[in-house]
Design goal:
Keywords: Chromophore, Flavoprotein, FMN
Distance between the termini: 21 Å
CATH topology: Beta-Lactamase
Organism: Stakelama marina
Number of strands: 6
Oligomer: single chain
CATH superfamily: PAS domain
Largest sheet: 6 strands, antiparallel
Strand content: 15-25%
Radius of gyration: 16 Å
Order of helices and strands: HEEHHHEEEHEH
InterPro entries: PAS, PAS-like_dom_sf
CATH class: Alpha Beta
Protein name: PAS domain-containing protein
CATH architecture: 2-Layer Sandwich
Shape: globular
Pfam family, one: PAS_9
C-alpha cells in the first residue's frame, strides 16, 4: 500500500508513538515512527511486516484482545481505545494505552492507524498531556490526509476518568510482574 507522503512526513515528526498497519491478512505493520521504536526498543526493520500482537507476549489480556478483534471486524466501529500489557524488546512489561482508528481511502478502509502510550508509571498529568498531543496529532494530520482523499475515521474522545485509567494500568502491571511473571518468548510468525 502506498501511503501519502504528507502523512508519512507528519507521522515521523509526531511526538507520540504511532504505527500504521495493513487491513489485509493478519494486519502487518506498514510503518512505525521513532517514538514507537523508543517505546518498544524494536527497530523498524524488526517490526515492519509483523502483526503488533508479538508485543503482547503471553500476557492474559482477553478483554483487551476481544475489543481489538471486534474493532478490526466491525465496519461500523471507527476506533477503539484499550489498555493491554506489552513487552519491550528487553522483556520489560509495560501497560500500553492503545488507540486505533481506521483510515479510509476511496471509501474503503485502507489501513489501521494506531498510537501507543506507556501508562505503567504515568500520572494523571502525563496522561492528560498524551491525550492533548494525540488529539492535536489527529487534528493536524486530518487536513493533510483529506488532501489525498483519505479520511481518518472517528475522533479521539478524552478519557472520562484519567486517574482511574492510571490506577488500573498500575494494578495490571503489578499483576504481571517482571517479564510478565513468565518466560517471554517470541511468537512464531
Amino acid at each position: 500500500m502506498q501511503l501519502p507522503p504528507s502523512l508519512l512526513t507528519y507521522f515521523e515528526q509526531s511526538s507520540v508513538a504511532l504505527s500504521i498497519a495493513d487491513v489485509g491478512d493478519d494486519n502487518p505493520l506498514l510503518v512505525v515512527n521513532a517514538r514507537f521504536e523508543e517505546l518498544t526498543g524494536y527497530s523498524r526493520d524488526e517490526v515492519v511486516s509483523r502483526n503488533c500482537r508479538f508485543l503482547q507476549g503471553e500476557a492474559d489480556d482477553a478483554e483487551a484482545r476481544s475489543r481489538i478483534r471486534q474493532f478490526l471486524r466491525s465496519e461500523r466501529q471507527p476506533n477503539v481505545r484499550t489498555t493491554l500489557v506489552n513487552f519491550r524488546k528487553d522483556g520489560r512489561p509495560f501497560v500500553n494505552l492503545l488507540y486505533m482508528s481506521k483510515l479510509r481511502m476511496g471509501g474503503e478502509v485502507a489501513c489501521i492507524f494506531a498510537s501507543q502510550f506507556d501508562v505503567s508509571r504515568s500520572n494523571a498529568e502525563e496522561l492528560e498531556a498524551y491525550d492533548t498531543k494525540l488529539d492535536h496529532a489527529l487534528k493536524t494530520m486530518s487536513p493533510g490526509i483529506d488532501d489525498t482523499g483519505a479520511i481518518l475515521q472517528g475522533s479521539l474522545t478524552m478519557i472520562a476518568n484519567t486517574a482511574a485509567t492510571v490506577a488500573q494500568a498500575r494494578l495490571t502491571l503489578e499483576s504481571v510482574g517482571p517479564n510478565g511473571g513468565r518466560e517471554v518468548r517470541e511468537p512464531l510468525i
